[in-house]
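User: Quick one: structure for sequence A, then sequence B.

Assistant: Sequence A:
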Amino acid sequence: MPPPRRGLLTSLLGLRSFSSIAYPHPHTPAPLRRHEFVADPTTSTSRGVIGGIGGGSGNPLDPTQLLRDDPVAITASLWVSSFRAAAAASTSGSGSCTPAPPQSLTPFLSRLELWVLAYQKAYADETGSYLPRSSIPASTLAALLTLRNAVLDARFRFGNRLTPFLQSPLATNAPDPATLSKRKLRALLTTPGPPPFQDRVVQELLLLLLEPVYEARFSPKSFAFRPGRSPHAAIRTIRRSFAPYLWYIKGDLSPLLHSPDPALVVGALIRDVRDKKVVDLIRSALLTPVVTASDDAAAKKKKTKRKYQKKKVLPEGEPKPDPYWLQTFFGFAPEEAQTQPDWGHCGVLSPLLANVCLDELDKWIEEKIKEFYKPSKSDVVGGDDGIEQGNTSWPEFVPTSGPDKTRKVDYIRYGGHFLIGVRGPRADAAVLRKQLVEFCDQRFRIKLDNENLPIEHITKGVMFLDHVLCRRVVYPTLRYTATGGKIISEKGVGTLLSVTASLKQCIKQFRKLEFLKGDREPDPQPCFRMFHATQAHTNSQMNKLLLTMAEWYRYADNRKKVVNFCSYIIRGSLAKLYAAKYKLRSRAKVYKIASRNLSRPLKDKKGQSPEYHNLLRMGLVDSIDGLQYTRMSMVPDPDYTPLPSGWQPDHEKILLEYIKLTDQQTLEEQRNCIREEGLITPQDYISMFVWGYKKNAVLLPSKVSDAQGSTEDLGSDTDGLDEKELGNEGNKSFPKLAEMS
């Protein structure tokens, strides 16, 4: 067994976050005083202070005296403890794999270091730039301390604009609400607007505390609103695991993401989080009403004559809007990813709370997967042990089996949309659908029927995440090594799962974005939003869109076809735009001047003597990049790299590897295995090498008369080694010295 691979922890240890975990402080901490606490006694020895009161030198009311630890290290300790509890629960002999509820989160809620980290994240979202910890002014630290004390004392209210504890960095000259008139106060309280900046800081802090707790508990079959689990990971999981299934059940629980029941959310939350302060904060965020614009106010608004408006110049600190290519790509978002939960004053915490509620569905279906599993020995998909017998390098291929097939169920969820695959008769899918309707009605109070949960066969095509799942029969040549080392080639037959991009859906999105019209023969339309942009800027924006589209369809079997179609639509749209802009009458005239990829300039200035290339060389004009993927051969091939079985995101792998390396039982097992195999660890080998070097160096003869005794001592240590291993090959100085003596 090889020694522990500590190189995998480089990226984790590079954050300076696990230094206090792996190497605790050598001295013993002093006894705790009143109002002091230890956030995690097993991982940290630093003490926080509640209410600005604590021991130590300096002013106890100075916020800088409370910033003692690295906030990333504190957060990392919570990640490690949560995943360690989940790993212990999964390896225990008990029937339930759910870890015990975590420790109280109030000590973490009291750490001013975490409040500073939450402020930095909210500041980056507000201004679009990162603020180092050393650049935070003292007044902001004092305001953060006041906000923290208000949260701990239950004086904080979401949506409160009258008593701001912390001002937005962009609202430096905001008036004090105490100095406003009644009319302005009424307008401040009734006019809808962005949430107060202090609300966003509290939301970021709650996300820092709750995300590690639930990431260790969530099912591996959910892929939305979670770090490291992108739509691409969901598509690759479908290609890896859903090949043998015949019937599919599609469901949509998006109503739960639009209008949640606060009692349902708090009930799901309180099962895993037993901290009263955290639960009360989230309950307050869900129950506090949000100020919205009324229809009567919009109707009574006077119609004013549109006046000439000057071009708005954004301030330096204000974040710039999304570029045109990014806005266009957002229009291609699949139906499953269009619903982003936003619950009251929860803000960035809403997606996590949505997954907390839907995790009950994940756990329920995981139990049904075990219940519906009925193996068959004659089926190649799974035997008595449940292990797939197919080709792991070609997981989407399933060899043909006999009439008696293994009955099994699999499941995947992305946001409020889920997909269930059933291998077996359609009756099994109907029974599972009936039970699913009853569960959603009782647990989520959502009425589902057969129309909301259709059962579709794989041969008709099943759409999920804008990709169509279908199956076709193939007859590949199978080569394998028989007994005796003989290679046998024979014709096989089986089914192949095909994951293709929906061209129909792509045309629908282009039509919605007004890039084309028509269904059977799509006709590109000019992109007039880029009318006032230069040719170089327009081509650059569209190239970014095409590159992003090519990356989005990376795992589609028809990647070349669909990306080349997108390039055709965009190229035709730009050609019509340039024809209208430069009065060239037709697309053919544009292609003749600007070439096929629109890389040549379409219009030069009158009386301009130098050529375009000379101006470009002198830096007087912008270089014009040609459009990408104008030919199908330029589009990259689909990525068929199989997803490993039991795949996990990188951060989860690193956390689990770190937990294994810090487990004394694992280290002892590795040492015993090394001793049994007669191996030697690199550390022991280096120690022996250094010790032998020191011993031999001391025994080297200082005088000719001592040579014989030295060589005898050296020979006693190196009797079992030849000259080559000792490094004395070609050097006979020791025998000569022995003869001289």
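Sequence B:
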Amino acid sequence: MATLEDLGVSAFINIVGAFAFLILFAVLRIQPINDRVYFPKWYITGGRNSPRVRGRGVGKFVNLNLRTYFTFLNWMPGALRMSESEIIQHAGLDSAVYLRIYILGLKIFVPITVLALLVLIPVNVSGGTFLNLNKKIMYSDIDKLSISNVNARSQRFFIHLLMAYLFTIWTCYILYKEYDNVAFMRLHFLASQNRRVDQFTVVVRNVPHVSGHSISESVEQFFHRNHPDHYLGHQAVYNANKFAKLVRQKERLQNWLDYNQLKFERRPEKRPTTKRGFLGLCGERVDAINYYRERISELDEKIAYERQRILKDPKTIMPVAFVTFDSRWGAAVCAQTQQSKNPTKWLTDWAPEPRDVYWENLPIPFVSLSIRRLIISIAVFALVFFYMIPIAFVQSLANLDGLEKVAPFLRPVIEIKVIKSFLQGFLPGLALKVFLYILPTVLMIMSKVEGYLSLSSLERKAAAKYYYFMLVNVFLGSIITGTAFEQLYSFIHQPPTQIPITIGVSIPMKATFFMTYIMVDGWAGIASEILRLKPLVIYHLKNLFIVKTERDREKAMDPGSIDLPENLPSLQLYFLLGLVYAVVTPVLLPFILVFFAFAFLVYRHQIINVYNQEYESAGAFWPHVHGRIIASLLIAQLLLLGLLSTKKAANSTPLLIILPILTIWFHKYCKSRFEPAFRKYPLEEAMEKDIMEKASEPNLNLKAYLADAYLHPIFHSFNDDEEEKIEVRVDKGQSHIPSPTRSEISSESPPHYVYHYEFEP
């Protein structure tokens, strides 16, 4: 069990580590050669096209201004300088709402910490339980500050009961205010935008096959018949795997052509050459520029042929389409109602924002979705219990005293003072962090298999799985296995009737383990986030071996984004720990406060200077944040109820039963009051927005505006000089939409499906 000395060792290691990360970050960020690693957001938005600090010669790579090295903390005021409205404009509402979670943590826990330390610590210290307790039960000086040190049947428990009520009331009040604020921010954000294509578009899945009709014809007939006044057109989905392969080949060849042209411009006296054979290593040596131009020309012909084949072959059409309407009201009616007597056919929902679409999952049939989700649910359940093994191992490291009693042969090694302090104070938190490292990636893959249509939905589902995992394994698992290891001797040698009492005393003792975890994950871990060591190394490796053109350098930046599948559950774990231990072991709360304050600064800096969000969901994840904090409140109340029952506090315990009931009622009220703003689009607001838009822009050509809104990135793959066009049918004759003009395709964009537009004649 970790003692004060062990916690001191852990705090020293993590504080020194965090400080070292910050100093290293301060040095690396001002080097011109690293500018694209630590400020990629400004390059993407056009706010910067070269390092601000740049000299000649060596000064192009290394900052020679010594004065800048002494201002290594100036990033902190810089992170606070930008207002919330400016952050929304700069990085989007999702980023601003994510930062509000840290503000929420500070609002909740600052008053709770002050009150708990001033009131509960003196009450717990003067309890004196451990003076009369069985000597075989392990405890430390920190445990004397917890509720475990209060004698059974003590009237002091009424003070803990009062604090539980005050903490719950304060938390619910802050949650209500924040839910209200975020809902207002979301509605204001949506209303302030003139036109969002997803407000006019519905995605329809499981389109039934009708004999003699193509999928596209079935969609047109169905919506023309059932939504005759507002149906504008639809965008059919085609399977285009071979097409995507050709486009990627062209992109690689175009990159080599650009590289050789730049090389020739620098040395015009010598034309670059290459070999025709494998990877340019063998075969006849030829002029590189002419060679790559010929190869690209050949691929252009193949791409044009393949695209025409896709558009003409009815077998390539998938049973899904994006349906557009001439008004928000028409789209809202379609998206929020059942379209067919058969509830498994013509499934409609709001189309995600174009950047938010996860293309691979579009054509998955309804039956397959149900089977996939059942299988993944079973797999997640199995994974949770599989991870109990490493969690138990971590707890064995945290409870060496208990192991010594059962395995005395380990005592000579464990009793070495430095080793023991390291094992109990630092290693358990680090080991748990390592075991959790790959889990978010695994859970994201599972969520993709389940078949959700948008990246935001995938991240929220992955975050939900990770939260349940953290709740069961990291929190409950650590308490249960940790208690077993700590009191292993007592469990074996005491009567069964005494075991519940021992557990009731032991649960607060796990606060020491969670303190070490917070220091590793929430202090040193957050400092390592701002250092960006992995992206730094990868960027310079790419720069050394892969980058040939400016386009390559832009791709090598890899700004990343807020990792919601990992960050949201981790945040919710900190809320859970704070709310559970606020009454039980208040000394943990300052560790939570340091995390929220430090993480707020770091992520504000990263959002301003680094992250580039893949999509904008307008804060759609907030209901999940609110719901899980409510769940944390309920868990804290139930654990306190169980703990007081083991303390035989018969007078005070019944008064706690009403608290979970009031909390559930509060959650249901907030759910009915605010959640519709995150799930549905009010018809009243849709109609008002349509009327205002028609009054301000009476001649708006909505078809032209929506025509390529959901164009898959694969169509962004043709040169400016190409004459090929995508033909579509529109009202009053024929028209043409020019092909997109970019000559590249993002390697991150799924290549499986493309879209063809067929508006009603």
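The radius of gyration is 30 Å. The longest strand covers residues 231-239.

User: Thanks, that's what I needed.
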